[in-house]
Amino acid sequence: MTSPMEQIADRLKTALKLCDVLTASVKEASPVIEGVRTKLENLILQHAGFTSASADAAKTEEIRSQLVAIRMDIRECSNTLAGIKSDFADRYRSLLGTEKESFEYLTDTEQKNQNAPAYEAKTSFHQVSRLLEVLDLITADLLNLSGEMEHQTLQNRPTPDIGHFEYDDNVPAPSSLSP
Q: What Å distances lie between residue 126 and 35, 76, 108, 133, 155, CA to CA?
């Protein structure tokens, strides 16, 4: 079983590969995808900086702050990609018009032969969707990791003394309305 840090690193690498596929297949969105790819590469570098975290509470809080920053960067990438995904969906619909339903019943090869631009828009839409799914999984992993770190830190802290309570302290006062 892989550690959460390794799982996040693997998913970031998967996201980079998906960016490469998108860049190769979608020339008009290449600059935007390259920008997302650059951010993901920076996230990998940030991630590598804290893979060997100690149990120190101050260090844990620093790492958790970095995880929040990484999640914010991923959200920014996701927002950018959501716009691209929407553009591909719009292009697909506009290229097919009223033929959309019949086009979707065709096999992939038939779709490619009948309307190559629409087929490319559809496949690009699905590629961006997959990349967004991976980014969502990374975000979930980061949240889980942050929660685990907080839990470990809290477990290492001593339980505060709550004092001594007498039984009479816990009994509510009698109602003033009773006879």
A: 19, 20, 13, 10, 43
